[in-house]
Amino acid sequence: MKFFAFHLMPWDRLPEDFSEKYDTAWTWLPNEIFDPEHGGELYNNYLDQLVLADQLGFDGVCVNEHHQNAYGTMPSPNLMASILARQTKNCRIAVVGNAIPFYDPPTRCAEEFAMIDCISGGRLIAGLVVGGGPEYYSFSKNPTFAREMYREAFDLIMRAWTEPGPFEHYGKHWKLKYVNPWPRPIQQPHPPIWIPGAGSRETIQFVAQRRFAYMGIPYFHMDFFQRNFDMFRDECEKCDYTTDPEQLGWLLPIYCAETDEQAWAEYEPHLWYFVKKLLKGLVVFPPGYTSARSIAGIQKGLKQFMSTCESREDIEAGGYAIVGSPDTVRQKLSERIKRLGVGNLLGLFQLGTLPHDMTCKNMKLFAEKVMPGLREELDVTLSS
Amino acid sequence: MKTENKTLNIAGKKTQLTILGEGPPLLYLHSAGGETEPIAFHKKLAEKYTVYLPAHPGFALSEGLDQIQDIHDLAWHYVDLLGELNLENVPVVSYSLGAWTAAEVKLIRPDLIGPLVMIAAAGLHVDGAPMEELFIDNFDKLRELLFFDSKSQQSIDHFPSDINDPRILMWLRAREATARVGWNPYLHDPKLASHLHRLSGPVQVIWGRHDKLIPLAHGEYYAKHLPNAKLTVLEECGHMVPYEKMDEAAEIALEFIASA
User: Fold this and answer.
1) A302 touching chain B per CB within 8 A
2) Do you know which Gene3D superfamilies this protein is assigned to (chain B) (predicted)?
3) Using the beta-carbon criterion (under 8 Å), do A295 and B173 form an inter-chain contact?
C-alpha cells in the first residue's frame, strides 16, 4: 500500500460574490482575480507542504497540470516537480500528468520528464493525460482530435524513451524529422506510467492492455469508482493477467483532526469553498472530446459528482471525502481501500482555503496516526 | 410534397440526402444546427425547386467525419457530391456553416455553383465584431444566443432543452462535426477574406439585425467585399433566420434566384 500527497495548488481568494457573478472557476474567470504577490506566497506554502510530505514518510507527492482556472494554478507541473526533485529526498514524484496533446512537439514532455527523473535520482512517476475538457477551450485545441492526438503523442513519447535516436516520426499531428531527446531517464526502460481516467472504457482498456496504472478521477461517488475499478480488473483478466493493486489509484480529499466533531468543524467551510466554487465548471465536455454516446452517458453520471452534494451527510454517504479523527479516517479508509482493491491512496490534504498550518497539521496527523496502521493492515490483506 | 430519402456513397463517405419538391434543382447547405430533416423553410423553396438537402459528414446519418480535417475537406466533399448528382451551375441556398462551405466550394470550383444565397454566413473573422462562443452546453444560454426571441415557439420547438431530450445524440453529433471544421480557427478560414474578390457570381446575403452569434458586421463585410453581392437585413431577427423569418427569407431567396 502506497500513500501519496496530491496537490492542486488551488486559488484561495475568490471574490465574495463569486457564486452570483461567475458561471465557472475555469477558462472565462477573469485573471485579474489572480494576485501575483499572494500567488507567490501560495506557491511557496504549497511546495512546503509537499516537502513536508516527504519528511513525514509519504511514499510520494503528486502534482498536476491545469490551465486558466482557479481550481489548480499549476500550468506547468514540471516546474514544480523539478523543484521537488531537489527538495525532497526519498519520495516518488508523480506528475499526474502532462496533458500531452498540448505539448508541441510532445517530445518536450519526454525531455522534461527525463530531466526530472535524472535530478531526482529516478524517482519520477510519469502521468500522461488527455487534458481536461476546459483546457481545449483555454488552448483553442480542437477537441475532436483529442483522443487521436493523445495516442499519437503517447506512442511517440514511449518511443522517444525506449528507442535509440535519432529517428523520424511522421504522424498525423506531428511531423518530426529528428526525434532524439537528450536527456534520457534514469529509470529503464522508462519511468512508471500513470494514467487518470473518468471511467471511459476506451481509457480503461488502453491502460490494462499496456499494464500501466489507472488513477480514478476524483470527486465521484464510491459506487462510481467501484464500477470503474471492477471494469479495469476485468480488462486485465481479458489480457491474461491479474491486476496488481498498485496498478490502481484512488484520489480523494482527506481531513484529520483530533476528534470527529473538531475535524468537521474545522474543515467544512473549506470543503464547501472547494465543492461549490472551485469545482464550478470543471466538468465540461467539449464536442468530440469523447464520443457523443459517452458524453450523453457521462452527463447522466454527473448525478454522482461531488458538486451535487448539499450537506455533510451527502459527502459521507457518497464517500466523496474522508473527514474525522485519526481512528475514524483510518477505519473508513481501510474498509474502502479493501472494497475498491486499490494499492495507491492519493490524498488531497489541501483544497483551496484550508490554511497552511491546518494543512500541515492534517498531513502530520495522517502520517503519524493513520498511515502506519493502514500500511501494516493493508500490505497483508492486499498481497494475500 | 414529394419527398425522397437516399443514401449516397460520396468518395467512401455514407451521405444522407433528402430530395424535396419538384422543378429545377436547388442545393441547400445546412447550418451547424443540422436542419437535415425538411423544415418549413425548405418546403417553401421546394414549392418552386427540387431541393437537394444533404447532411454534412458527421451530421444526421451521414458518416465520414474521420475523412474531414478542416473546411477545405468539407468543400471537396461537396465537389464530389455535386459530381455524383451531375449538378453544375446550381443555385444554392446556404445558412451559417453551410454558407461558409458554399463560399469555399465556389472558390475551388466556380462552375458548380450558380446564384448563391448566403444566410448568416460563418467563414470570416471581422475585427471588432467577434463571434460568440457556440460550443457551450448550457441550452438556455445557447437559445438566448441564437434566437431574437428565446421564448418563442420556434425556439422551443427547434432546440433541445436538456440532456434528456431525445434529440440529444444527434445534437451532440452535429456539435462534434461542427467543431471538427470550426473549433480553430474559430468558425472561419483566415484566407477566405483575401479570396472574396474571386467570388464574382451573384450573391444574395441575408442577415438578422440582432444576430448575436455572428454579428451583422460579418454580413456587411461579405456584401462589401464580394464583387456582385447584395445584403438584405431582416429586423427583429437573430441568427436563426430560416426559423425566425421563414417567409421573408424564402421569398428573398426565390426572387433573387429567379432574377439572377
Assistant:
1) no
2) alpha/beta hydrolase
3) no
